[in-house]
Amino acid sequence: MTGSRTLTRAETAGWGLADMGIGCFVVVKQLLVFAFLTTYLGVPAAAAGWVTFAVLAFDVVTDPLVAVLSDRTRSRWGRRVPWIAAGAPLLALGIVAMFRVPEGMAWQANMGWVVAFFGLATVGFTFVAVPYGAMAGEMTRNAQERSSMTAWRMVFASLGLLVAGAVLPALAGDSREGYARAVLVIAPVILLTIWGMLWLTRRAPRIDVGPSTGAAEIARLVLGNRPFVVLVSLYGIQTLAVALIAAGLQLAALYLVADAGDGPLSGAVGALGMFSTLFASFVLGAVASQWLWVRASAAWGKTGALVAAVLLYIVVLGLIWRLLPAASPGPVAALFFLAGIANGGYQQIPWAMYPDLMDVTRNRSGAAVEGSFSAVWLFGQKVANAVAPLILGLVLARAGWQESTGGPVEQTPEALATLTWALTLLPAAIFALSILVLLTLYRAATRGLAAHA
């Protein structure tokens, strides 16, 4: 292990840089794939939900394998770098190819094309995300440094969300050909930010020698950490709520928010499009809130700050439900900004909590299995991200949602009402469940751990 020391600003902020590229992929898989399949490739909503679930479920299967291999890798650059360096180009290539669907194919072939390259992209994502998450537990054991690292990470992640969620749809316009061109802007961002992180953290503390125990013992060590397992479940529940919103957000922008052309945001809508305008408001709220949540965690404890963020999310979702469908984007954009502030807490606080729980196992056993912790940490999130579009697809199909190949088509009032509550009231109920878990099971599991007061 390299010597433990205080991290430099370049290392603290530089670690977060990679999440700009990761954030781009998060937008693509959670916000754009389902809508692209149903709106431009003619794939029925139920089928789109099932195939999106299948690809992301496969991603869950690959995580434990990459985790164990990453923990056991030996190289002159450390255990994590080779995996991250190889995963970045796979991720970028997969994203470019999945949107360049050849013309003239049936919807089944269109779906198969997207699934194949979506699968390649998710493999690349696993190569990056699992070792990357492990680095947070290796670079420092100082809780305040981890909070600062996570804040920088979320700032860069939000910028990635802004690039992919606002710029990409604006460049794409309302055509499948536009998406094929727009992803050529996203791919270099993914590659350069991930490789840039490796360069900026090349001298940061790391653990070079992995565990000597077998896979079964590693699993026992990780899953025997009860506070960590509860946090994984808790964050998975919250991610399901966010993933439901994300899966249908572009459909909401297409069908539930109108623009009469005389409001204060009409110019932005005309230049960027409705989805990009609303998403930019959301991301700006998330970026603006990062240091707020760092201070809130210090003042109220991480548990208290997370409860506040989730409560804010529930209130905002209720207000959006009352507002939709909306005749003007202005009030919706304001609520999206508040939702972004709440999402900033959802993003930042649990990611600052989980590396502290790695230390509990390392202190007890001496085993450095951060890669396996990272894989389990991502497991709950990836399950939620896989299940959410499936739930949305089945719910919309039951309500009679109509797929198309040329953009938005007329939908029934029942289908639009279903989309509205599926993106607001259902996530709000899931968030409420997560608060119950947080205040009961998690607090009981972490009693006596000062970092989680």
Automatic annotation (TrEMBL):
Q: What Pfam families does this protein's entry cite?
A: MFS_2
Q: Name one GO molecular function term.
A: symporter activity
Is-annotated flag, keyword Signal?
no
Q: Provide the organism lineage as a comma list.
A: Bacteria, Pseudomonadati, Pseudomonadota, Alphaproteobacteria, Rhodobacterales
So what family is this one in? Belongs to the sodium:galactoside symporter (TC 2.A.2) family.
Q: Where are the transmembrane segments?
A: 20-41, 47-69, 81-99, 111-130, 151-172, 178-200, 228-257, 269-293, 305-324, 330-346, 383-401, 421-442
Question: Could you tell me which PANTHER family the record lists for this protein?
Answer: MAJOR FACILITATOR SUPERFAMILY (MFS) PROFILE DOMAIN-CONTAINING PROTEIN, MAJOR FACILITATOR SUPERFAMILY DOMAIN-CONTAINING PROTEIN
What is this protein's record name? MFS transporter
What species was this sequence derived from?
Answer: Histidinibacterium aquaticum
Q: Which GO terms describe its biological process?
A: carbohydrate transport
